[in-house]
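During the second year of the project, the team shifted from modelling isolated chains to modelling whole assemblies. The rationale, set out in the original proposal, was that interfaces cannot be judged from single-chain predictions alone. As a representative example for this report, we include one of the complexes processed in the last quarter. Its constituent sequences, exactly as entered into the pipeline, are reproduced here:
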Amino acid sequence: MDKQFLKESVQQGAVAFKAGKMDRRAFLTLCAMAGVAVSAVARGDAHAAANQIILWNWGGSSEVCHGQYIAEPFTESTGIGVGFDTSGPLQGKIKAMVDSGSVTADVCDADAFDAIALGDSGHLEPIDYSVVDKAKVLDGFAWEYGVSIIFYGYAFMYDTEAYGDNPPNSWADFFNTAEFPGKRSLYKWANGSLEGALLADGVSKDALYPLDLDRAIAKVKTIKEDSLYWGSGSEAHSMIVNGEVSMGMVWQNRGKAIEDDTDGRYKLVMNEALAMPGAYIVPRGNPAGRDAVMKFIQTAQDPKAQLGLLDCLGMTPTNPTAFGMIPEGQKAYAITSAMNIDKVVYNDPVWWGANSEKAVNAFLEAIS
Amino acid sequence: MTLPDTGDLSIKNVTKTFGSTTAVDHVNLEVQRGEFLTLLGPSGSGKTTLLMMIAGFEDASSGDIALDGASILNVPAEKRNFGMVFQGYALFPHMTVRRNISYPLDVRKRPKSEIESRVEEMLALVQLEGFGDRLPKQLSGGQQQRVALARALCFAPPVLLLDEPLGALDKKLRIEVQAQLKAIHDRVGTTFLYVTHDQEEALSMSDRIVIMRDGKIEQVGTPNELYEKPRTVFAADFLGKSNFLERSEATYALRPEKIDVAPSGDLQCAVSVTGKIQTISYFGAVQKLMVMLDDGKCLEVDVDIWRNRNAFSVGQVVDLGWTDDAVTKLEG
Amino acid sequence: MILPFLAVIAGFYIYPIANVLWLSVVEPEPGLGNYAALFDTESLRRIILTTIRICVVTTFFSVLFGYTIAYAMVHMDQRKQNLMLALVLVSFWISILVRTFSWLMLLGHNGLLNNGLQAIGVINEPIAFVRNELGVLIGMIHYMIPYAVLPLLVNMRNLDMRVMRASQNLGATGTQTFLRVYLPMTIPGIVASTILVFILSLGFYVTPAILGGGKVLMIAEYISVQILITLKWGTAAMLATLMLFGVLGMLYVMSRFMKLSAVFGGGR
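Output from the structure prediction step:
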């Protein structure tokens, strides 16, 4: 059966149904059959396209940016096309896809802790380091089941009009509502929020992991009355731009846009920013096969590609060669620029990979 | 039956217009206490609009309506105290028969004991003892109609308005209920103002009938007056069947049963013509002959079947005759 | 003709539901551990209670406002009624995200209302209308009102208005007619609205997540977190099962009081 045929028979059915020639049950049956078959055909189409890489990312401008800076050079050098699934590769979705046996994505723009957690549970293909180059990644950010292409980070912004000559400069200030009164916003799914709380509570950068969950939660609760929690970048953005908070945690790559949107009233603080390694991971049994997808990841390691993503998405390079090439205007906001690289604190994906369930639920319980 | 001390309804020069159409046109009518008066007319004749103005659901455009001499135009519907039986009964579907009937007393916050005894009285009046705890949907159409009647009479209204209350019943039941309705009217003595388009209903129950046409009253009178002495073609035609004869610039009505008929040459009458039977329709007690006269006009004649068994057949030539007092001269 | 239809139902409804039931007793390990967690995890109970509280309040006000709107609509002339109906239906087309963010713009810290009230000097500090439970309720009630209106509108339109006239004729005041006749006759509509709104409310999470400022956690959002982020599928399945049986239980209790087919406009 072909799609057009089914579509037409449903339309005819609708006419007959309206005219009273077909009873309701028969019409519904026809619709249901057509619906099933159409979706089955659509799925078949997706499988059929073999000679392309499907990149599973978070949509928005990332489709354009990934397309321009990774997909285009990749297609140019290999002849393999690139398609996008922009629905967001959350851990649960990747797991469900692999478990169901119908894997439709080749590479996911995921978090490093996803690489650890899903790698351990057997849902990922290992990275082939004969193709992907470990030397093109900052030391410690290439794992068996994922490799970091970009860093992003959790930093906070503050209202310059509220704090005047004595601006906050650390998580300790962020959590100090006595000296720095005003509302705060934090990330809802615990990540970064817990680290910020521990740093504020006096834990040193080097002794952060394993996280002392109870201590972090206790600290988070101390400012609960003054806190809002956001679940998406745009929400974090609007909480600040609308003046709902005096200090707001953000994804650092939004910093510049928010400073512009508020005419410089809100300023980004990169001191103690929590650097999050992103990771490219490959679902087990990816349709395009291992060689093609590894070449794709290799392309993404190129400094040119990474600097493109920095310009386009504000994502910071992980390839040390690119660090020195970060343009002037981006230096203040980039994790790995010379002015910030010694101030940031690196997230430990291994701890998060093993403990995120406990951490997220404990955090949710504390804030709700 | 003693005459009640209230229930005189005066309708004075009442007009009702909807936009550019005039539904009721300068109607004057005196309804006497205790009377069973029927407004009879085809749809669009203004009878229902008139009833709705009396009930207070429509405002009169001009004129006055008075009860026992006092104008009620400014009295809202819920304060007029007129009982009403609606087309389709309009029973409260979520209430039992008992609660339906007690409703007008409930909303008037009468004492409980009074309500209970009154409801029993009403159930007895409409012969629905034992049905008090049923829901309306558990009753037949005729029973529902009686509940509606009991509900409307429960608070002893001075006037009862009935808007085509038998329209939903089948013919046999309708005739039965007509008799019951008339009997109840005689027992309670309330003024009944009855709206219908069914002439048989009007004839069988009414003390007086008002024939309405295009918002105006065509003729008022007792059933017998109207039947025997219709004033217009419309009245003669709407109430009963009639032949119309043109004689020297005037029109006369002649009821089909007032025509004598006999095989050709047998008839001795004041007026007599010959004609040929075109059709015979059988109605059990009577048969209707359609007789074409020599001048090409047709007359309808009712013939008692038993007394004329096997006397007539289609194509037969017959003599028709009637007496002078059988014809009525009509106006206009 | 009915056989393929049954197969479709089995494939698309029964199989996934059975799967959820199964997951709730085998993930992460076989047994009733996920259900036991209900009794010894205070946070789960709190989330459930929050959800029920918000859904009950949302349902109450949505049906109340929906009733008022539907009542006003059936008493308008046909042209105005069509206009109102169009407005109600159009609101189905506006995405929930747009509506949610619109509330932030209207009622937020720097929103139209707070700025306006501050400008005319009624208040000095912005009032916290949103980013709390009040905000969640405002957003949800607003979203649910059209869903509450439709069943009530159908119910009210089908009422025999002669019955109201009869009540008036029999001496009842407007209030008496409404309370004794109109309201009881619209109970099927009220029940249908209530069930519809309550069930839809249970599944809400975009609005609570945003207008609640992250502090109002309802079951639906919690389930999605457990599936997508923390991968505790067993807990998620257990909560989903709980919701399913909660809804079925509700329908059962309702069905004891009235014919559900009457509520949902089926055969008489």
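The mean pLDDT of chain A is 87. Residues 307 and 317 of chain A are 7 Å apart (CA to CA).
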